[in-house]
Amino acid sequence: MKRRGLHYDEEHAFLREEARRWLGERCPIQEVRRLAEDPRGDDPRVWQELAELGWLGLLVPEAHGGAGLGAVHLAVLSEECGRRLFPSPLLATQLAGLVLARAGSDAQREAWLPGICDGTVVAACAHLHPGLGEPAVVLEDGRIHGDVPHVWSAGSADLLLVPARTVSGTRFVCVGREQGRVVPEIGLDPSRRQGRVRLEGVSVTSDAILERDAEAVWEEVLPWMLTALSAEMAGGADALLVMTSEYAATRQQFGKAIGAFQGVKHPLANVLVGVEQLRSLVYGAATALERGAKDGALLAHMAKAQASDVYPFAASRAIQFHGGYGFTDDCDAHLYLRRAQCSRPAFGDAAWHRRRIAGHLLGA
Amino acid sequence: MIARASENELESLRSDVRAWLESHVPASPAFPLPQNALLVTEERQCEWLREWQRRLHAAGFVGAEWPVEYGGGGRASGSQRVIDRELARVRAPFLVNNVALAWAGPMILHHGSGTQKRRYLAKLLSCEEIWCQGFSEPGAGSDLASLQTRARLDGDAYVIEGHKVWTSLGIFADQMILLARTDPDVPKHAGISYFLAPMHVPGVEVRPLVKLTGEGGFNQVIFSDARIPVEARLGREGEGWKLTIATLNFERGASEGSAGASDMGGGSVEEVVALARSLGPEITADPLVRDRLAAFAIEAAALRLGAQRARVPGLVADRPLALPLMFKLTGTEHSQRLADFACELQGLVGTLWKGEPSAPDDARWQQAYLNSFGGTIAGGTSEIQRNLLGEKVLGLPKSR
Q1: Which residues of B touch A348 (CB under 8 A)?
Q2: pTM of the complete model
Q3: What distance in Å separates the CA atoms of residue B171 and residue B182, rounded to the nearest whole number?
Q4: Which of A6, A238, A284 sits opposite B301 (nearest CB)?
């Protein structure tokens, strides 16, 4: 019989509880601020803990050392990380693992995935598109050459997956940290570092070229990436809503808490509606992906479009309703604002995803 | 609480309902039917719909989860939702006794005496008695608790004096759920009582109101020393407000207890996409149109998935009140903007009104847009809904 309703059970609830507890201890906002000043931007000492928790290999099949879990687990973990602005290559590594699992041969998967799962290999994957046009890296005569900007966690990565144009189509190429040159970009969001990967005639052997066509793999993994990122954005938007509501309920002016004024109350109600609708879309997408339902990709586009609108909106109301204090570095809202603004265009902004959705509704 | 039905029971019910509907959904009548219960204005519409509800009830599909002794189907929890979904799937006619099924019925079932349950429930389900609601007054809308209609105890009757407004189905109704003030000397919330008031007694006058669309559908009801029996009171004197909050929860979509679905007929995203296609490639290729359609599709998916998520405790644990308190607000505003967008797409042709032969689909979208304000204003305005979200979900203080 067809299964109805969203997929969510005690296992997912348990992961959420565990993630909240761990992140509550390991990643209070002071830690986010500390890492913002750090040259690397993340703490390698916690990476081993992430391996032990099974989070690095969350999606990797058990045969390669992973937990073999699904999209709903990914959404839950991403949401909780987003709530805490967890500065980590965690998501970048999970996404790289997804690409490796789909694009690699058995030998390639066996070579790389166990290291990702056990914490010995931090990985990052350059985006194929959208917003970045044709891959800027070319593979010719056994050498790759080119320049890829905006790669998440590139500076911390031991392994980089870079899409390259070849004579037989686009392929992901595995590049070790000592082969490529990563130039850290100074970004608006210090909690998610980005780097420009410079490849100057780096020689690659055939076993470093992932065998499946990169475009095809990207189409398959994109809905997973969108769902994870949208879940992360939902967590962050939710944290902003909680923070701002608490402030509005206590900050007194004109003899009452400012949240009593509808000029504050109603926009916050609108943020609430946006965030709750986003969560519904995220878990709808995650359920569909996990069940292999045909609307999984469509729902993932919807979730990202919604997230791209809601997270920045939540952030702008948070700054605004914290008043003068919100305009200072002291207020935590701007840390989330930076993450929101940088997550908005990643893997396609709202308009890009709505174009894909319109294509589904109206045909081409 | 009644037991949950098993998947097998629900599957079996689903096929029974489908089979019954295949041979029992009546052909459309010769005269036009309105889009929902609140728009019924003609006797012949009312009688036709009444007969449909009677048949549906006789088949066991109205009040499916209510106790058998009161005319219900005695089925397990989840059954009514299955039935309602099947009715929606074949676009079966709506149930006219909307106020009864969604508000009066659950109220009597949960708070009425045994005598009241036996007296009212079966006839309510079968549509033998039609119910209307007497809450709002010209001076008491959003601030309902300030209502002034008076109920004075006089021997074995209450004497009702006052003026109710926005009374849908008033001209057809046999009974009214009535809020009236029994004690004017206590704080406003504490002096209100709840009545199950007969409409066909001397002193009750129903006057139709005309909506902005030119249609009837709601009314004023003027009480001039109308006597109703003491037994008509539900609960104790002064309990009316507490019971009202329960009613308003049913009205705002939070209830699991309603006895049958009522489709407001606002139109779907799929229908607007079809409209866009029918207007040709200039419209369907327009990037702004495409973007707006996609945005509506996202919103519709969020509404649908929100209803599913509301049933998963682990996914609403942080804010269990958010989704139930959002349903009315988000659904009505979505429908309103969607209808307005359809009108926009139609351009100058969309300036025609029903009755004009070249009006597209008899000005269906124009009517839907004008009627959509019923949704955003009645049952707690969108502004009140946002207040509620801010106060009950986000913990912000009240505005007054």
Answers
A1: none
A2: 0.91
A3: 26
A4: A284
